[in-house]
Structures are given as structure tokens and as C-alpha cells.
Specification:
The complex is a heterodimer of chains A (about 120) and B (about 150).
Chain A: H1 3-25, H2 32-54, H3 66-89, H4 93-118
Helix pairs in contact in A: 1-2, 1-4, 2-3, 2-4, 3-4
Chain B: H1 2-11, H2 13-16, H3 23-49, H4 54-75, H5 79-102, H6 132-153
Helix pairs in contact in B: 3-4, 3-6, 4-5, 5-6
The chains are: A mainly alpha (about 120), B mainly alpha (about 150).
Chain lengths: ~120, ~150
């Protein structure tokens, strides 16, 4: 993992989560802005996957459990598409809130992934 | 979008009154994430390091299964099953959370680090899951109560 990229990713995911939560609680249905924010979170996660696959070859090895890292990464990759799919079929304000919940979940999972990558005992 | 926003208020109230509709959808989503997180992690802990804290890991896996059932009960609008499973969750997080702080050895826990390798879903009242396991059952029961009182009066 690359520390700077990971921090940026957590910040973006939190911002997307807050944005969707506020817009959703204000009563708006999922729109291009909220859906786009969650798609961005997913794209950054895909970039993280590429980084995780390439990094060990460049001497950047994970300290913790590799399978556990990929359990988080792969289940994380599934969450934003599910939330977007949900938002597209159920067009209510609550789907916007769900988009926010998905983005926050990704933020937490990326923090855990960083922990597993950097600490021996996670 | 601006056109559809104006009409939303007249469309949403009806589904919002049923269990599983409206704000209940958000509850289902949060429950689903917690169920996957708790089940996934405990399965990994049981496969990878079961001997370290067998009691705690089995409790964690049980919690995960209860969250899965609660998620399905909320989504499928099985009110009674939802109340039972959510009540069990609340009791579980309070009892196991208290035990983990007062007598960690009873659960086989050496470390109470909420983000450490022995962290489980109910240890330290769910601190390793940002206290979501403590807050969620309370919100769930409040939601089920308000959903039923709205149905009774309206």
C-alpha cells in the first residue's frame, strides 16, 4: 500500500459518505452527484487493488495476513456496486443515505486494510 | 432532478410506514454490512487462530449469524423474528461487552485492543466496530416500535 494514496482514499470515502448522508437526509433521491461520488470511491478501491497486486513485486510487502487483506479488499469492492444497484432500482431518499453508508463502510475497511498491511499482529 | 424532487414528498409516505420500507431500508443496509463484517472476520479468526480465544471467536461467529438472521427478518418484514434477534443482540453486546472488560480471561481474551487480532464483534461493547453493535440494536428496536405504532394509529 502507498500511505499517501490510502489516506487520500479514506478522506474521499468519508467525504462521499458525508455528502450522500446530508443530501439523502435532506430528502433528495440518488442523483449524478451522489452516485458519482460512490463510483469514485469504487474506482479508488480498484486502484488500491492494482497497487496491492504490484507493490510486493517492488519490495513493498504486507506485514500482516495477506488472505485477510484480500478478504477486506474483495468484499469492499462488492459494496459500492451493490449500493449503486440498490439506488437505481429504489429511487427514494433512503437509497441516497444507503449510498453514504456504503462509502463510510469502505472508509473503515480501508483503514483496517492499512492496519493489516503495516502491522504484524492484526 | 429538480422536477422529481417536488413530487417525492407525495410518493414516499406510504412505503415508509411498513416495516422494511423507507428508513428501514437504511437499517437493512447497515445490518447487512455488520453481518458480513462480523461473520467474515470470525470465520477467518476460527480458521486462522481458533486456539487463541475459542470462546470469544465462537461467540463472535454466533453474533454474525444472528446479525444475518436479523438482516433477513428486517428485509422480509418478519416483525417478530426481527424483535427477537435484535433483542438477543442487545443482550449479547451488553453481557459479552461487560464480561470482556471485567473478566477477559473468561472469554479467553489476552488483549482488549479493539482493533487487535483477538478483537470480536461484542468485545468492549463493539469498540472494534466503532460501537455500531451497541447502537444498532437500540435504533432497530426504536424503529420497530415506531413502525408498529404508526401502523396502529394510521
Amino acid at each position: 500500500m502507498i500511505a499517501g494514496f490510502t489516506i487520500a482514499q479514506v478522506v474521499v470515502a468519508c467525504a462521499a459518505g458525508l455528502l450522500c448522508l446530508v443530501i439523502g437526509l435532506a430528502g433528495r433521491r440518488p442523483n449524478d452527484l451522489t452516485l458519482g461520488a460512490v463510483v469514485l470511491v469504487e474506482l479508488l478501491l480498484l486502484a488500491q487493488l492494482v497497487i496491492a497486486l504490484v507493490a510486493p513485486g517492488l519490495g513493498n510487502h504486507p506485514a500482516g495476513s495477506v488472505p485477510l487483506f484480500y478478504v477486506y479488499l474483495i468484499s469492499g469492492l462488492l459494496i459500492p456496486p451493490l449500493a449503486v444497484f440498490w439506488a437505481l432500482i429504489e429511487r427514494t431518499r433512503w437509497s441516497t443515505v444507503v449510498l453514504g453508508v456504503a462509502a463510510f463502510a469502505i472508509a473503515v475497511m480501508v483503514v483496517r486494510m492499512a492496519q493489516i498491511w503495516t502491522q504484524q499482529s492484526s | 432532478m429538480s422536477v422529481s424532487q417536488n413530487t417525492e414528498s407525495s410518493e414516499t409516505p406510504a412505503p415508509a410506514r411498513r416495516t422494511g420500507g423507507g428508513v428501514g431500508r437504511v437499517l437493512v443496509a447497515v445490518y447487512a454490512v455488520l453481518a458480513i463484517a462480523a461473520t467474515g472476520r470470525s470465520v477467518f479468526q476460527i480458521i486462522d487462530r481458533f486456539a487463541e480465544a475459542p470462546v470469544a471467536f465462537v461467540l463472535s461467529a454466533t453474533a454474525g449469524v444472528i446479525y444475518l438472521v436479523a438482516t433477513i427478518a428486517l428485509a422480509a418484514r418478519l416483525r417478530r423474528l426481527a424483535i427477537v434477534t435484535i433483542t438477543v443482540e442487545l443482550i449479547g453486546v451488553l453481557v459479552v461487552g461487560t464480561l470482556s472488560l471485567l473478566a477477559p480471561a473468561l472469554l479467553g481474551l489476552d488483549s482488549l485492543d479493539p482493533f487487535g487480532r483477538e478483537s470480536t464483534v461484542w468485545s468492549a461493547y463493539g469498540a472494534g466496530y466503532l460501537l455500531v453493535p451497541l447502537v444498532l440494536p437500540v435504533l432497530g428496536l426504536l424503529y420497530l416500535r415506531s413502525a408498529s405504532s404508526r401502523r396502529a394509529t394510521g
